Amino acid sequence: MVDNSTILSQLSLFAKLSELHGQNPFKIRAYSSAAFNLKKIKDPYASLTDEELLSIPGVGKGVVESIREISTKDHWFDLDELLKITPSGVVDMLRIKGLGPKKVKTIWSDLKIETTGELLDACRQNRLVEVKGFGLKTQADIARYIEFAMSAEGKWHFARVWQPATDFKENLKLAFPDDRVEFTGSFRRACEVIENVEIITDVDIDELIAFCDDQQMPTDAMDGEIYSKLLGVYPLIIYATNAEEFDQFWFETTSSPAHLKKLSYSRLESFHGEEAFYKSKGYPYIIPELREGRNELDTDFTKEGIIEYWQLQGVLHNHTTASDGLSSLREMAEYAKDQKYQYLGICDHSQSAAYAGGLKAEELIKQGEEIDALNRELAPFKIFKGVESDILSNGDLDYPEEILKTLDFVVASVHSGLKMDEQKANQRLIKAIENPYTTILGHPTGRLLLLREGYPMDHKYIIDACATNNVVIELNAHPYRLDLDWRWIPYAQEKGVMISINPDAHEKQGYHDMYFGTLAARKGGLLQKNTLNAMSLEEFESFLSKSRS
DNA sequence: GCCGTTTTCGGCCCGACTGTTTTCAGTCG
Description:
By secondary structure, this protein is of the alpha/beta class.
């Protein structure tokens, strides 16, 4: 079945292309507003009846027909017709932030530019500023965006690759239960962005080749015992070795070059078991996530207690249908309880976030009453009243004090006006951190991995301020964010700043992203004792009352 | 194309922000 995101992206692409080709503006608006309203529906559109689809605001007969065509025929005639008359490079330009149909049209028809490569070239030659409506800033933004997109090419979010990689590994293991099959490389180190999945095995080479042929996975290239294959669209590398050399090869392929260098590792060393190897070097076992050649040899993480996924007791920073979430408050609460969490933090968007259905003060108060009622029903499980308050342009939080003080905690995040220089970002964040009602600084840089750079900020300055003001920093566990970047965790711990691994869930299943957040946290060596939501319910309650006093 | 009747046509038109302008067009969330 064609999934919802495919249908949505086709509807909005259709709207954009129609605008690019100067078609009826009201029809264009109809399609984009239909897409906007459909976004809130979680059931597969293809499974809904015509009546159910028509009951969605903005969805009429025409949109229903389009959805049916996309989901049954896998193609949409009207969209195909538009694509036929639009060079593919021009379609690519529509994805560039800051470029909409109007500006793309100008670039295409006035400058006769039809690919993003030519567009980058034009920016570098200062040709864009000549055109009406374009200035130096727009030109620089476009160039930066294209360069960023080029650097992201061939890279993938770890979490996106995780499922197919895990499935493949399990299938291989099932087929050869007596052999070893393990992840290695950057995938085993759980790097947030990876270029390929790496697997090492001692399965007999002929049998391995036969297995891959069976899975319709032809070998692209072979270099000695290294096979390059494709796992769907993701590059897969298989290292074929023997039982005798397995541990050594596994260790070598797992570790980053910097880690090997720190250990003064030489290829000639032969060993069995990574624990034994580290012991022989005088170190405790170093978990794969840490093997980046940073500070992993300076601390005995086995003694200090690095965070583990199962140690998370609570799940903070979650949205509900009250703002832009897909699950109701009750669904979120019951699911968290089912997952054996002791507590839940509800943090819908605040009033300024109109695009996300941010809550007006009275709606927030009303949600608080619903939470009280659910707490009576679900005890001893506890829901905490929170909000994800926008950090306004001047650094203020989004509600007056009399509203903020009715809440148990506040996650403060920047959502708009992301284009800031470092000085502005620092000022804005510091003001929010100094606000006595701020409990957690949400996704501190606003980055979206492979999609958007974060705004620049002085990490040390911000972390120092969090230490001074007793503010916790979020490690947003959404696989596209993983923000705070794990590289800053050592500094935060050094300053005594706590980290909260938050899913930023917009539906109940979003809690599971904390698994990826925990992997990132482990890369930074986050200790259990410094993890806010590894606290028990009692500890968390006492933390909150202390942070408020 | 959607919607809602002034009930099958005619009106629809987010709003803040940004970067471009010299009073506003285009984009985005």
